[in-house]
Amino acid sequence: MTQAKRRFGTFEEYLNYDDGTDTRYELVNGELVAMAPENPLNVVIASFLFARFLEMGNSLLSGSNRASDCYPFYQGNSATT
Length: 81
What we know:
Blueprint: E1 3-7, H1 11-16, E2 25-28, E3 31-34, H2 40-62
Antiparallel strand pairs: 1-3, 2-3
């Protein structure tokens, strides 16, 4: 990865920075560091996991028996008290 010459004094300056490209940067010791482009395999894996979690959430909300032993945790959940 290459480092850009731009330096920022505050985090807000970094958040407002736009170089007109799709390059994503991270801020390291006040300097921009270009991040590597997204790996296509990571996108496929993340999409698969998102779909599975969404499916699990929908089955919980609909009362499906398929996930009847799985409950989200939050205060006041009658399944955990």
